[in-house]
Design goal:
Blueprint: E1 4-11, E2 16-23, E3 28-32, H1 38-48, E4 51-56, H2 62-65, H3 68-75, E5 79-80, H4 87-90, H5 93-100, E6 119-122, E7 125-131, E8 140-144, E9 149-153, E10 156-157, E11 160-161, H6 171-182, E12 190-193, E13 199-200, H7 201-207
Parallel strand pairs: 3-4, 4-5, 9-12
Antiparallel strand pairs: 1-2, 2-3, 6-7, 7-8, 8-9, 10-11, 12-13
């Protein structure tokens, strides 16, 4: 991805992959899923030398969205995503954060909800939005076909899939989202997921026990 760069910063006790994604040409980008540890995220942004234009959320769980309100305030940028079906999760972030011992979490109302077919911009690079419910009702995936790259949140992992035992989760819907929306993207598509190492669609098609 010569003009698209990514830095992964695991945050919170959940070791969630907060991602800084930017255009190498424009030196402008986004922060995806700032679950917490906002000061560490800001330090990483400063070291990258880029200007952050917005915050993107793949879904509303505490480990992905818990720091979004504070980061929005400190950067003065909008929050886009997830799908509105995750509103109930975003309205409970402060309470959920307290229950998990994650300090500083605040309830959040995004500046823009996302739906299937929308596009979001990472500087001058467009990402298509796919609505992929199952892990949560409002989970979305960001796809750039030109760079053969996707940010999939907790929909799909290397060797696994998102858990579906949390409120609003549904295993059948999750597997359908993966098989009908992610696998057709092509085996050469690389993806960053919400936890753990990166992978490719092809690797998961061939080896992921949940998809075989």
């Amino acid at each position: 991805m010569p003009s698209l760069r990514a830095a992964i910063l695991p945050v919170t006790p959940f070791q969630q992959n907060c991602t800084i994604l930017w255009s190498e040409v424009a030196k402008k980008g986004v922060v995806i899923d700032p679950g917490g540890d906002v000061s560490r995220i800001l330090d990483a942004v400063a070291k990258s030398g880029i200007s952050v234009e917005k915050i993107l959320l793949t879904h509303g769980h505490i480990d992905h969205a818990g720091g979004a309100a504070e980061l929005r305030e400190r950067l003065g940028v909008p929050v886009e995503g997830p799908h509105q079906a995750d509103l109930f999760l975003l309205e409970q972030l402060a309470e959920t954060g307290r229950s998990y011992g994650i300090s500083g979490s605040r309830d959040l109302m995004p500046d823009r909800w996302l739906v299937e077919g929308d596009q979001v911009m990472v500087s001058d690079i467009a990402f298509d939005v796919l609505h992929c419910p199952g892990h949560s009702p409002g989970s979305v995936v960001f796809v750039n076909r030109e760079h053969r790259f996707a940010q999939v949140g907790d929909v799909l992992f290397r060797g696994s899939v998102g858990r579906t035992d949390l409120p609003g989760g549904d295993h059948a819907s999750l597997i359908r989202s993966i098989k009908e929306k992610l696998l057709p993207l092509g085996d050469d598509v690389n993806f960053i997921c919400g936890h753990g190492p990166t992978s490719t669609i092809g690797q998961e098609r061939e080896t992921n026990p949940f998809l075989i």
